[in-house]
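sorry for the late reply, my laptop died twice this morning and i had to redo everyting from scratch. anyway the thing you sent over, i finally got around to it. pasting the sequence first so we're on the same page, its 308 residues, then the predicted structure underneath. double check i copied it right bc i was rushing
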Amino acid sequence: MSSTSDSMDSRGCGIGQAMRRHEMGCCLGFAMMTVVGASAAASEFGVKNHSIYFTCEAPPFLMYAEDAAGRRTGADPEAALSASGWPAGERKLEEIPYAYADFENISSDDPATLDRPQPATLWRTVILDGGDQAYVVHIRGLDKTYGSLCVGATFQAERGSGAAFANANKIVAAWPGVERQFLVHMDPGATLLAVDRLGSPDDLARTVEVFCAEGLLDKKGECQSLQAKADAARAATARGNREAARGELRAFLHELDALVKTGKVASEVTGAPLREEAEAALVALKTPPMPKANSGKPKAGVPARPAK
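ok and here's the structure:
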């Protein structure tokens, strides 16, 4: 499966203007800010090597990371959230060693809305000295819309001669109460970050519906055709007919590629996440059950970039 590096706004991985503008490079900038923030924490923990981070906004979803031992750090899925994504009692999960979670919501300075919270709270999970291992990132939808998950890694040089960075930004369809998952692997030896979706035909069908409702797929005929194929794959899976489901998914990918090639679907914003969803569903149908956090290395990754 492919991994893509997309865009973030200056606060992190915002759901609105960041993806609609589709500006490049901000996610890497946030990675560098995370390194600065992590340095103090690293001193506290006695760690000063590699780090990996995950950021998103709530709403449209909350997020936490899970390591191979089942330990979690990030938003607590059992905690009540305000409409702007702030957790009741400031509850959060911090179970992974040498890791922390934080969140922020800077009040508005607009005179008309002075001191009111922003509509979404930025969540960040940072794991220090992650080493060569994998994590599952859990995303639980709060609204029926789409948002963005930013994943980044910092690879420290052995002799302290600087650091390299890698990042991947994933557009994700959110659905209230529905969880999505990504398998993230960090390989310091190869300075490689790999981010793979874990999915199903049901995930794909929900994503198409959200993208059509939000205007990312804006032609009625295209929405109906892609939705029909995704729904057929979901129905075939429910009946236990995996071969029929795979056929529908391959037909979905063929049509999607044609739409991207003719410019009817934007490749990066819409085409890439839909392709990843369909490919993840195909993998799930071929190799059940879903892989766990320690199941091995994904096939594709984002190579690190040296710090300037």
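Helices lie at 17-21, 26-45, 201-214, 220-239, 242-261, 267-286.
thats about all i looked at so far, will dig more tmrw
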